[in-house]
Structure formats: C-alpha cells, structure tokens
Amino acid sequence: MNDQTGTTDQLRRQRILDGAAKVLLTYGFQRTTMDDIAKAADMSRPALYLIFRNKTDIYQALAQSYFDAAVANARDALAGSGPLEERLNAMLETSIFAMMDEFTRAPHGHEILDMKKQLAGEIMTEWKETMTGLVAEAIERTAATKGIDLKARGHTATILANLFWDAIEGMKARLETVDEQRAASRSVVRVVASAVESD
Fold this sequence. Notes:
About 80% of the residues lie in helices and about 0% in strands. The chain has about 200 residues and is an all-alpha fold.
C-alpha cells in the first residue's frame, strides 16, 4: 500500500466515524442502521462494509478515537509546570467533561455512553490504565520538583492516582449532571493535590 492509498483509507475511515457519531447520537445504537451510517458518510453500504463489519466495530472504533483524543488532551494538560491542582482540573475538563458535554446534549448521548462497558470494555480498561499512569507521572514529577517524599507521607504516586480515578468514576454513578460532577471533581483534585503539594 502506497502513502496516497493509506491516506485515502484514513480519510474514508474518519468520514465514516464522523458520520456514525452524528447518527448514533441522534437516533441511538439500536435504531441506527449501517445504511444510515453509509448515508451520513456519503458512501455506499458495500463500501462501508469494506472497512467495518458491523455497528459494533464502528462503535469500538469511535470509542478508541474518543479515548485517544482524551489521552492526548490529558498529556498536554498535565505536561505544564503550573500547580498540580490546576493541571488536574485542566486535564479533567479537556479529556473528560468536554466529551461528556457533547454526549449529554445529544438526544441519545446517554445511551451511547452507557453502552461503552458492554461494547468497548477492553478499550475502556486500557484507557483507564493509561490515564492513571499519566496522573501518577504528574504526581511523581510534582513531588520530585518540590522535594517531597511521598512515602514518608504514607502515599505513592500510583495509589494517589488510583484513588483519584476511583473517586472520579464513583461520582459519575452518584451525581446526575455534568455540572455537579465538575464541582465535585474539584474537591477530589484539591484533596489529591494537597497530599502532594501541601507543606
């Protein structure tokens, strides 16, 4: 495969994912057909089947695309040199809450989000491990910069990062709106940041 063919395939694949996201969020997973997705991508159904076998494949590719973007946004937010609290809040906003805003505004966004464990469980597990690792790295780097011995405080960067994500995920089950989750997440961030940065 030459570079031009590869680029064309990538553009076609992205067009399918963009179209699929629109129709899935508008009509839901069950009501959306492969024909709907082909039309949204401005291609024939046989052409669509050359790239994706079924809706589940498309859903998983979409999930991977969103999660890859979230990881990239998290890396950018955490790479700065500002206070850890600011960086963690920025990371949550760009990699979690901005995406949740998009989904919750859509007619079937909640349904699409609710299906992620069922249809993209392995992708989610890998994503969480990556995000936890990024937070742990940021915590460890902050502690090293400030000359803080986390072990002397009874912590490790990995434990704090896992506690952080457990709390963030737990509040999603308890709080209904994204705004409520945003507000609660700031308290979680403050607790984790103070464990690292407080004197």
